[in-house]
Specification:
CATH architecture: 3-Layer(aba) Sandwich
Radius of gyration: 18 Å
CATH superfamily: Decaprenyl diphosphate synthase-like
Structural class: alpha/beta
Number of helices: 7
Helix content: 40-55%
CATH topology: Undecaprenyl pyrophosphate synthetase
Largest sheet: 6 strands, parallel
CATH class: Alpha Beta
Number of domains: 1
Number of strands: 6
Length: 246
């Protein structure tokens, strides 16, 4: 990953959204189209992650959220999951120093209980080492599912009501947001999904209530800055009313 210059400014031609979320889809199809195993697609996808983080920082995006591994992905063949875990270990070990040097703050959302101890330790280290960085807020969703996230928030709030710490009348949208794993992060302005699929697959369901969606017909390993700029340009041409009349 190239070091981001502190002098880099976003393109004047782009109306850059504050928060971009991406569903990184198409690794398997990318590999299949080349007659290669799915694992090769995942490895190529890591390069796209690297390019996208770099481009986001250069364009002036403040928050970038990447859907790295869903709760449903645990159902994949054991060999594929094992390879993905190996890539996760490798990515954190190789990239953490550069990400930190570039001023990127890392946050992990999702259920970590199913990860091996060493992976949980690596994720905690990444968050701790970069917690004071301010250039780009990078959130990575791992073992994440939005329904599970919302369910856990409801359980936490219900426990406070049962304990007498909170009354039902005090439950508001703001309170629910505070109990989500994304607490403190603004809702996505733009959500991009690669591979041409047009669904959000249990990703940021609460947070995406007024998000603009762009579905890019490009497989994730081929995604680069030009595709990100194209999606941002699409976003800039939309009129966001948030339910109001303008």
């Amino acid at each position: 990953m190239a070091v981001l210059s502190s002098q880099t400014q976003p393109s004047d031609a782009l109306c850059v959204p504050r928060h971009v979320a991406i569903i990184m889809d198409g690794n398997g199809r990318w590999a299949r189209g080349r007659g290669r195993p799915r694992t090769m697609g995942h490895r190529a996808g890591v390069d796209a992650v690297r390019r996208t983080i770099e481009a986001a920082g250069e364009l002036g995006i403040e928050y970038l959220t990447l859907y790295g591994f869903s709760t449903e992905n645990w159902k994949r063949p054991e060999s594929e999951v094992s390879d993905l875990m190996g890539l996760l270990r490798l990515f954190v070990k190789r990239e953490l120093s550069t990400l930190h040097k570039n001023g990127i703050k890392i946050r992990i959302i999702g259920d970590r209980s199913r990860f091996a101890d060493d992976i949980r330790a690596l994720l905690a280290k990444a968050e701790d080492q970069t917690r004071d960085n301010t250039r780009l807020n990078l959130t990575i969703a791992l073992s994440y599912g939005a329904r599970a996230e919302i369910t856990q928030a409801v359980r936490d709030i219900a426990a406070k009501v049962a304990a007498g710490e909170l009354s039902a009348d005090e439950i508001t949208e703001d309170l629910i947001e505070q109990n989500l794993s994304t607490a403190g992060i603004p809702d996505p302005d733009l959500l991009i999904r690669t591979s041409g699929e047009q669904r959000i697959s249990n990703f940021l369901l609460w947070q995406s209530a007024y998000t603009e969606f762009v579905f890019e017909d490009v497989l994730w390993p081929d995604f680069d800055r030009s595709h990100l700029e194209k999606a941002i340009d699409n976003f800039a041409g939309r009129e966001r009313r948030f339910g109001a009349v303008i």
